[in-house]
Amino acid sequence: MKSRITFALVAMLAPVALSAQTNEDLQKQIKQLKTQLQALEEKTAAVQEVDNRLVKVETKVAGNNISWGGDLRTRFDSTQEHFKPYNQFMGFANNPGYTLGGFNPANPNSYPFMPMTQPMASQDLTNSVQWSTRLRLNMGMTINENAKIMGRLVMYKVHGGADVPTFNGTPNTISTSFTAGQTPATDALLVERASLVYHFPSAFSILSIGRQNTSDGPPFEVREGSERNATPQALAVNASIDGIGWKFELEKLGLPEGTLLGFCYGVGYESGFGGGGAVKNNSTIVGMNFTGFNGTNPSVISPVVGSFGSLKDTTVLGVMFDMPLLFQLGESVHSANFYLGFNRMGNMTDIPYGSTVNFPIPGMTPSTQYVTATANLGDLDQLTATWKHKIGDTFTYFVSAGYLKSHPNGQVSQYGAYWTMPSALGGKTMQVTGFGGLMGDPNNSQTASATYVGVRYDPTSTFGVGLEFNHGSPRWWTYTPATGEYTDKLGARGDVWEAYIHWRFAKNAALRLGYIDYSYTSAMSGWQIGPSPMSGTWEAANDLAKNPTLQYGYPATVKNFYASIEVKF
């Protein structure tokens, strides 16, 4: 009986005992999990602490490896422009005095058509207040003892200005990669320079690949009161160029230390990337055929279709020679630099790819348009030489000269206005106005020249005054869409004077006051193209003093006063 009672009690209490054991085990397991979780959290915290330290170290190393600098410029401009009388081109009409068979290319009155023009009296324009801001960020990163990366980002904006200005006949109102950072545009940071530079000590050479240092070159540093900023001379190239350069150090040959002989290759227009070069042949309306039109039968008027396509890349092959000199005459220490450069620009196009407003396409209303090259116009040789001489710490002068020679291939830009001749005259389509051929002549080689001189006097280490002058012949052109002024001066066809004072009133801050006087003699400044005249010489047809017929008005004089605050950091 006792055993039965004992068995019954054990049977009744067994679940309770089992439950107690299970709860006790569960509590132990929970305690063990908490202990493990705490250990895991401690390990995670330790790993995070190590990771944070590594991030700080890596950030510090990267920060120490990348050097930053730059400058900020706020500029005020006040400008007056004067336009001499000219004839504004409006289109074409039949020549009532024309008789079939009486055509004489040398006599405009014998043409079956005549240009319609609107006489424009002299005009004066004033932009008395214009503010602009330019921010440039310079970046350098050392990869190893022989390799480094160099770059510059630029934001250049006119206060309240449109991102793409209205096209007014000048090339710097077309937004292209060449003008990145050189002409006022948007408030975006644009890449003006980005290149890998590698020094080969054993080969005494330096290789550079990418967007080259091709803006603000010598002797611009005299005016800026800074060190040399680029390889090519300012009178030759002042634009953003992508390519490759190889320089050889010649001091081992007995020449002065720092003497370099360089070769470069760049692409000015990539024909296979969009635009007319993407297909073998393409067409566009370039004008109107008025053959047979007598003023009352418009049904005979038809479009003139121009063909373009299968374009070639525009390339630049260059050679440069730089030789620095350091010598003493009497008690004065002299430093001088001699620069010599040659560029062969091959397969030049009329216009690189870009965007603009109100581009001159007949029959189209003003609108934002994307434009592209329509033809390869030929090759162009460019030779420049510069001598810069600094006497002591107070006086610097320079003399720079440029020379151009064109090698046209007979092609003209498809942008313009055309006229199809009657069949009795061969039915030939002629371009009678527009952008024309290379240096204004698609068939014959032409030459042009320019000079650029300047002096600067620094009586103290913080104050300097300077005077510069440049002159360009009627067909002069240089690869300088802009140079930071109100409008480009080194591409001017005519005379330009600039006087300035430069006062560094704080360690890294300076005030600049200046006056630039432009006096243009010929239209089409800044263009490497231009229409051939229907009669007479090209120089006379573009002479601003001879009441020329122009598709766009060009100022005869520009007077620009400027003041700027410049801060370097």
The CATH class is identified as Mainly Beta
What's the multimeric state?
single chain
Individual helix count:
3
Largest sheet: 16 strands, antiparallel, barrel
Spatial sequence of strands, sheet with the most strands: 1-4-5-6-7-8-9-12-13-16-17-21-22-23-24-27
Number of domains: 1
Strand residue percentage? over 45%
Describe this structure in words.
With 569 residues, the protein is mostly beta strands. The protein has a single domain (62-568), classed as Porin, CATH 2.40.160. The protein has helices spanning 2-65, 220-224, 538-541, and strands spanning 66-83, 86-94, 113-120, 123-142, 147-158, 190-200, 205-211, 242-249, 260-269, 282-289, 302-308, 314-329, 332-349, 354-357, 368-371, 376-391, 395-408, 416-420, 429-434, 437-438, 447-460, 463-472, 494-503, 509-520, 529-530, 549-550, 557-568. The protein has a 16-stranded antiparallel β-barrel with strand order 1-4-5-6-7-8-9-12-13-16-17-21-22-23-24-27. Strands 3-2-26 form a 3-stranded mixed β-sheet, with no helix packed on it. It is globular and about 120 Å long. The chain starts with a helix and ends with a strand.
Summary of the model, kept short:
The protein has 569 residues and is mostly beta strands. The chain is built from three helices and 27 strands. The longest helix has 64 residues, at 2-65.
What are its keywords?
single chain; 569 residues; mainly beta; Porin; 16-stranded antiparallel beta barrel; 3-stranded mixed β-sheet; 3 helices; disordered N terminus
